Each structure stands twice: as structure tokens, then as C-alpha cells.
């Protein structure tokens, strides 16, 4: 079926259906039910098959390294970082015109933000307002697990 045929069968405008298809609009359940009927499938099957690429599920594990938790194409950077004692590095999220937030789940981190040094332990968080440089070092004798977030850099001219 063409987009126009599905739109007509579901009593929707072609523009609205196109917006749903591209992820620009989120349909209500009644609209989804009409689309399911037009496509000759059940609403349950449609929901089961619609694992959106904009949804992601992550887990805070003890694993070393960096794991992206945000869905591909998300406007948010969300990262789980695991480190050994004395490991060090730069912020695992891109800097530049956006705030950075870090939460320590396990272990201890020393975080330097534009030359200011902070020591964080389990349950501690730090919000950095438009930092230019952020570095970290794992302290103590146990693995460190932290979650870092930042918005995507704003578009130029915004």
C-alpha cells in the first residue's frame, strides 16, 4: 500500500501519516488502532513490532570502558563509564556549548572542570555549566562506575 492509501484507509491526512513515519509526531492509541486496521494487523502486533530506534535501555554494570546508553540519533549523550583504580581520561561525552552532568554510582572519582578539582563518591553528582575541559581520575582501590550526560551541542545560529 502507498502512504496515500494507508492514510485514506485510516482517515488520516497524508502529511500527518508522513510525520508519524518520520518520527516527527507520536500517534495516539486510537490513531494507532486505525492504522493497524488499515494495515490489516492487530494493534498488539503493531506495538510489539514498533521498537522505536528512539528508545534505548541500559544497565549499570561493573564492566570497564564506555558504553553509550542513549538511543541512536538522540539529542542526549548518556554514557556509562567503568574504570580501574588510577585510570584517567577526558569526559566520555562531547563538550562544546552544552552542560555536562556526572553521577558516581560506585567508587570514587576526581573530576577537574576547567582547572577546578572535585572529589565524588558513591551517590554524588556534579553539574558542569558549559565546561571547556573536563578530565577524571579513578581514586581508591575499587572499580568506579559513573554515568555521564550532556545535551548535543546546539545548532549554530540558535
Structure in words:
- By secondary structure, the protein is an alpha+beta fold.
- The protein folds into two domains: 3-49, no CATH class; 65-151, Sandwich (Jelly Rolls).
- The protein is 20% helix and 32% strand.
- It is built from four helices and nine strands.
- The strands form two sheets. A five-stranded antiparallel beta sheet has the order 1-2-9-4-7, with no helix packed on it. A four-stranded antiparallel beta sheet has the order 3-8-5-6, with no helix packed on it.
- The chain is elongated and about 65 Å long.
- The two termini are 40 Å apart.
Question: Would you kindly provide a brief summary of this structure?
Answer:
This protein has 158 residues and is α+β, with helices and mostly antiparallel strands. It has helices spanning 3-9, 14-21, 29-38, 43-49; strands at residues 65-68, 76-83, 88-90, 100-106, 108-113, 116-120, 125-128, 134-139, 144-151. It folds into two domains: 3-49, no CATH class; 65-151, Jelly Rolls (Sandwich).
In order across it, which strands form the biggest sheet? 1-2-9-4-7
- Supply Rg: 22 Å
How is the main sheet built? 5 strands, antiparallel
H/E topology pattern: HHHHEEEEEEEEE
Helix content: 10-25%
CATH fold name of the largest domain: Jelly Rolls
Helical run tally:
4
> Between the first and last Cα atoms, what is the distance in angstroms?
40 Å
Q: How many discrete structural domains?
A: 2
Q: What would you say the CATH architecture of the largest domain is?
A: Sandwich
Give me the secondary-structure category: alpha+beta
Instruction: State the CATH class of the largest domain.
Output: Mainly Beta
Amino acid at each position: 500500500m502507498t502512504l496515500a492509501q494507508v492514510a485514506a484507509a485510516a482517515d488520516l491526512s497524508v502529511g500527518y501519516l508522513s510525520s508519524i513515519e518520520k518520527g516527527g509526531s507520536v500517534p495516539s492509541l486510537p490513531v494507532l488502532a486505525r492504522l493497524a486496521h488499515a494495515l490489516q494487523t492487530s494493534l498488539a502486533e503493531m506495538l510489539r513490532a514498533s521498537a522505536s530506534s528512539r528508545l534505548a535501555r541500559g544497565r549499570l554494570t561493573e564492566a570497564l570502558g564506555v558504553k553509550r546508553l542513549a538511543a541512536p540519533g538522540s539529542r542526549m549523550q548518556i554514557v556509562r563509564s567503568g574504570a580501574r583504580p588510577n585510570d584517567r581520561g577526558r569526559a566520555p561525552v562531547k563538550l562544546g556549548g552544552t552542560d555536562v552532568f556526572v553521577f558516581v554510582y560506585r567508587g570514587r572519582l576526581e573530576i577537574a572542570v576547567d582547572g577546578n578539582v572535585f572529589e565524588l563518591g558513591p551517590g554524588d553528582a556534579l553539574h558542569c555549566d558549559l565546561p571547556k575541559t573536563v578530565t577524571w581520575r579513578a581514586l581508591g582501590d575499587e572499580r568506579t562506575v559513573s554515568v555521564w550526560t550532556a545535551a548535543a551541542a546546539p545548532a549554530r545560529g540558535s
